[in-house]
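1st attempt posting a full record on here, be nice pls
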Amino acid sequence: MLNYPEIRLKKGKEISLKRRHHWVFSGAIASGVSEITAGSLVQVLSSKGEFLAVGHFAQGSIMVRILSFEPVQIDQDFWNQKILRAIQLRANLGLLDNPETNVFRLIHGEGDGLPGLIIDYYQGTSVIQCHDPAMYAHRLAICEALKSGLGERLAAVYDKSFETLPKNFPSSGNEWLFGKPKTDLVQEHGATYKIDWEKGQKTGFFIDQRENRKLLAEYSRGKKVLNTFCYSGGFSVMSLLHGAREVHSVDISENAIELTEENITLNPQISAPHESVVADVVKYIREIGSDYDIVVLDPPAFAKNMKARHNAVQAYKRLNLEAFKKIRSGGILFTFSCSQVVDKMLFKNTVTAAALESGRNIRVLHYLSQPSDHPINIFHPETEYLKGLVLYVD
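the predicted structure (as tokens):
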């Protein structure tokens, strides 16, 4: 018998929960919220009093984020079991003890049934990001669950939630919850990268592009490559390791360019020329020459909410149009969007509009998404956020 406060839904609003979607929106709630403190655990009931789920309560558009569709206590055993199942999935994917790739996503929010929680694993160091204050309250229990599930594979746990929590939320800042890292170097498909957990973007690396970097490597031999929004140079390193004749990396951040150059140095087998440029990519790409064989467009999320979607779509169109204008005939464009509010079809239509305006003949070679350690919850389509196209430009 659960002792959590009860929230009742309006008639007919239980359908999404019965379809195992992890969010309850404010408009679906009939009663029960006036006395509940934000961050509390609650049980969600139908209009008839039928148990539906247990989750975290918050004030806002999404009022409840579901942790379980079963009437279970959210205790240490719950966290141990949830995280162990996530670890087992990564073991089944061949990621847990892979010397060629020892960096991967361990918890992917709703994709692993834990809304508001991201955990990335870097050769012994787990980095936690809580996107929700209620999840942040469980960070020590989550740390214990990581220690239990990973055992000797875990050297340290770093909480990097400060950037992802609401600005007015009182937290102690980012901190080490357990241990010390053994190394800040990781392997991905045999390439070496340095990770800056404390100052770097996200948890330190854009793990979600792992398989797309590998695909770029297959096209790179003998090619001149432009990698825009390069951050730490993942696409650049893979291109150079697999025979690119020249690579240029561009980012507006000086720190990102410094990290890119360090990662190039960490792979001494690279011998082809590489040039780093600190510049605003949107402006820079208008001035490039027309001799690039491959262009990579991997911008940050241009839209983080529906209000910004229209402007984001226009930005994607302009950026892709400039690339279409400049890339040489027979060139290949890798283009991406990580904006969750821009779905696959909208992104493709936006790129298509840019292609039409460019006047060039363009064919789709690949549709791209996030890798399997970023699982897409079939009941929660919002977990599919990364989309990309590989395009051949005549």
